[in-house]
Design goal:
The protein has 118 residues and is α+β, with helices and mostly antiparallel strands. The chain is built from five helices and three strands.
Length: 118
């Protein structure tokens, strides 16, 4: 079950979703805050670079560790990438990880040029 609420951060309100994560033994199984726009931003980065899901996994440097189907999960919001993968996305796009995580921030209108496919 997904519950939506507003989290007050100073005088700024950010819309967030709460999703149950993990199975009861780890960290108590409580719901946690999840960025609502992360999946959309990851897809935008891949498409701006003109890469397939397999190609972006290679560019991120995790093709030997993560199955390419995970990229689909990340882009659909059914899974969240580990922090090192988020960092690699941010570096590839030339943005701070804050831009990926903060729903109040948009990706820049101009991302790095489309890459040449090998």
């Amino acid at each position: 079950m997904i519950a939506r609420y507003e989290m007050v951060r100073g005088s700024v309100q950010a819309n967030c979703s709460v999703h149950p994560v993990g199975g009861g033994l780890l960290m108590g199984g409580a719901a946690r805050i999840k960025a609502m726009r992360l999946a959309e931003k990851l897809r935008q980065i891949r498409e701006a670079l003109g890469l397939s899901q397999t190609e972006i996994l290679k560019r991120l440097g995790f093709d030997d560790v993560i199955a390419y189907q995970r990229i689909s999960n990340y882009e659909l919001g059914t899974g969240e990438p580990p922090l090192p993968v988020l960092l690699a996305y941010a570096r590839l796009a030339g943005v701070s990880t804050d831009v990926l995580i903060d729903d109040e921030l948009d990706l820049p209108s101009k991302l790095p040029a489309k890459s040449k496919r090998s």
